[in-house]
Design brief:
Layout (H helix, E strand, L loop, with lengths): L4 H5 L4 E5 L7 H10 L4 E5 L5 H11 L4 E5 L4 H10 L3 E3 L5 H10 L3 E2 L1 E2 L2 H9 L4 E4 L7 H9 L6 E4 L8 H5 L7 E3 L5 H6 L2 H19 L1
Parallel strand pairs: 1-2, 1-9, 2-3, 3-4, 4-5, 6-7, 7-8
The structure holds 3-phosphoglyceric acid.
Length: 213
């Protein structure tokens, strides 16, 4: 049975945002993150190896909840549905992307940053959104202001979120979880330093557990 965006995000202390350049790194990277308590993975379609990486993780890391990120058009959405992604994330939204999400049934976390964008997505049945790029769009103070008129919407902020500021985000009432790339630094992936990645993931998992009591 497939999970909704809300169910998926509530299983994620943090969503690692991954750019995988070499598909051979995909499985050990996913295993390292899952071992550190982060099962919900966003593999962005920003590299040539992305699709093959997603396929391998789905096949070989059953404890991961594997989603595609940077899904920006209907064609990509259809492709991700075909290969079995659990969810898809977009930095924004278009009419045709929303239609493809509906047609394929893949839970989509669409991006929004302004009241009008949020209202448009609410009209289309989305109350779980990506807030991107979080820091550049006003970060914590913007999200706090949006919770006044639009309290029914929950956000996953990404873009400039790290261990240092995730507590400020999670303290807000309208945050379901946060996402970011800091748990999988490029140099650690390149070096195959999976222990460091598990340590960074565990550090994030522990911090979120501590903040949420
Ligand atoms: C994203 O794609 O969601 C962000 O680019 C991740 O941002 P970060 O690299 O600042 O964590």
């Amino acid at each position: 049975m497939s999970l909704s965006s809300r169910e998926i995000l509530s299983k994620a202390p943090v969503v690692p945002v991954l750019v995988i350049e070499d598909a051979n790194d995909a499985v050990p990277l996913a295993k390292a993150l899952v071992a550190g308590g982060l099962p919900v993975l966003e593999i962005t379609l920003r590299s040539a190896a992305a699709e093959e990486s997603i396929k391998r993780i789905i096949a070989e890391v059953p404890d991961a909840i594997t989603g595609a990120g940077t899904v920006i058009n209907a064609k990509q959405m259809e492709r991700m549905a075909k290969i079995g992604c659990a969810f898809a994330v977009s930095p924004g939204h278009t009419k045709s992307l929303l239609k493809a999400a509906k047609d394929t049934g893949v839970p989509l976390l669409p991006g929004a940053g302004t009241p009008s964008e949020i209202m448009y997505l609410l009209e289309h049945g989305y109350d779980m959104l990506k807030f991107f790029p979080a820091e550049q769009q006003g970060g914590v103070s913007m999200l706090k202001a949006l919770s006044g008129p639009l309290p029914q919407v929950k956000f996953c902020p990404t873009g400039g979120v790290s261990l240092a500021n995730l507590g400020d985000y999670l303290a807000l009432p309208n945050i379901i979880t946060v996402g970011g790339s800091w748990v999988a630094p490029k140099d650690a992936v390149k070096a195959g330093d999976w222990a460091t990645i598990t340590r960074l993931a565990q550090e994030a998992t522990d911090k979120v557990a501590e903040l949420r009591g």
